Model the fold of this input.
Amino acid sequence: MTMPQADSDIRNSLLVARLPAMPQILLKLIEQCQTESVGMAELAELVAQDPGMTSKILAVANSSAYHRDTRRVGLEQSVMTLGADMIKTLVISQSVFQVFNNFSQAKHTDLRSFWKHSLSAAVMAREIAEKTGYSQLEEAYLGGLLHDVGRLALLSTAPDAYAANFHAPDDELLCAAEQSTLKITHTEAGAWLIGRWNLDSFLADSALYHHEPAARLESAHPLVRIVLLAHLLSNYGDDHPAVEAAGLLCGIEAAQLQNIVLGASSQVKKSADYLGIDLSGVDESIEPSVSAGAAPPQDPVQQQLSAEVRNLVLVSDAARSFERQQGSESTLLETISRSARILFDFEDTIVLLLNAKRQALVGVPVGEAQQRLAEFSIALGGGGAIAAAAVQGRPAFISKSGNPLWIAEQQLLRVLASDALVCVPLNAGTACLGVLIGGVGHFQVPGLQIRERFLLSFGEQAAAALETARGERGEAARRASSVGDEFREATRRVVHEVNNPLSIIKNYLGVLDRKLEKKEPVLGEISILNEEIDRVGQIINGLAELKPAPREVGSEVNRVVRDTVRLFHDTEYLPAGMQIVANTMDLPCQVESGADALKQILVNLVKNAIEAMPAGGEVEIASSGQVNRDGRLYAELCVKDSGPGIPPEVLAHIFAPVRSTKGEGHQGLGLSIVYGLVKKARGFIACRSSPKGTSFEMLFPVRDVPEQGTAVQNPV
Done:
């Protein structure tokens, strides 16, 4: 048996301990993660059957890598926070770790009894909570599942010293033995780990006090009492004095306790059958199924090979995650930083990239409260371990207790609030794009030095993704430049072509003037003028097809609605018996779409409505306030008429370019143009029609969030 470790050393080691999970559950999780249509609820349900994976998911979801305003207990919520890609990274990381670690090879680490005890306690805790009226059923389930997580943590931290204790009965004698050998009990270890998640819950207390006598917990929080009873029932069944006392503490009678035990036993058996876990020979209490001997020592070469294979799998998965990342460079760097935190247990990270002249490393404001890094730089020729890591392309390990530090290194230690820095170069072939710096504790440095090749591989994959993203942006810029050249060339062609009909128009205007003075017929000249004017319009329309969309500057919806109605009124376009009504809000509403595009949409729709009602009617343009769609605010606009409606066969293809049935001068493109303009504005449009009228309902992204107002009707 190894020498006992100091309590502070044990606690530090618990921070980076990889808690073993049931291999059957890991296999199921890998299978689920490889399914494209995997659901977060299914993943959470599977994770919830294993204390080790549950602990990892909750810990990561509540870590600094995923900042949230509040920390709440909820496994499915945590799974959704991380997303399928990060869950897959965690599962593969855990799987590879166990395959090449003594947890899967040493006989004395059979986890079946522990798994059965924890899952039984979880199922019973949820049932007890329901019977006692405790509303947080999932919290009770997690309390039962994780109440002994300290035993997994101690086994992971000190496998040789704790092997025999892991298989000992879970009682007061176990706590005394743990205190004697490791200076910390599994109740304290579990509570300390859970406490680090900063949850708004008494989960940590439920782990800390699950060995206390029932009499001492009379005034404790209901969750603590529920977990105590679930633990005792899982250990002893319903026929034990301690169980009876805990049952009275929760207000549950003996007959109900028996039903709880039977129900849990059935559920655990179903889970075991589904997962392929053989529970034959596993006792109700946690007893060693085989002799608790020390694991045979591994061949050092085999250990190194195992580590290399593990690192290759993890780096490969990280690379796939980077490739799937879309968006800006800062978004990709945030993904890289998060992955580094997970894989290397960094507390926080900083990214420094080489400037355009490749003379200095410049800070990138990635993450929360790091805007000050935008002005931070380290000259490559100025010396120091960070600059050397970029120049030499090798990881650097910087500690407060090492050699005298450069000012920049001292500053970064304070920014990351850590004892040591790990500097990972982002090598793209022979070139270095920058460095990723992680903050760690002193005790983590030796383990990361052993994984130097893994750090290098991770940096290479991150640099490759960054270089690819930059290349795609460069290609997009080149395409934009090419479009600009085409547009300028098209403009020159249009100017040249327009001169021809304009010259003709000018000549015929002179002829027309002379003929009018002599009172001669001018119908032929007018016809020619009309034709040439139409030709000018067609040439200019050809230019419009190549012209890039102007930058959106935003507009005020209600003003555009009123201007559009005024346009029809002032030009006396409206036929007799036709009325247009503006129904707007009395407070402004800014949208991202420009005013010209918005007005073009409304004018097209109003003209269509007027043409649909030759006998007269009413057209209403309504600004109906704001709508929340998929978590984003939109302004709603609606153009309604009182016409006869649109036939179903036409409505089915309402926004497609069609041959117009309105006669000469109509191209049948009006609604397709409207649809294109709405989509360019990142909006949505729908058409609703019946014999009582037709309405076009549109949503446009809101630029600012104005206050709500009341509707006022403005007939024009």
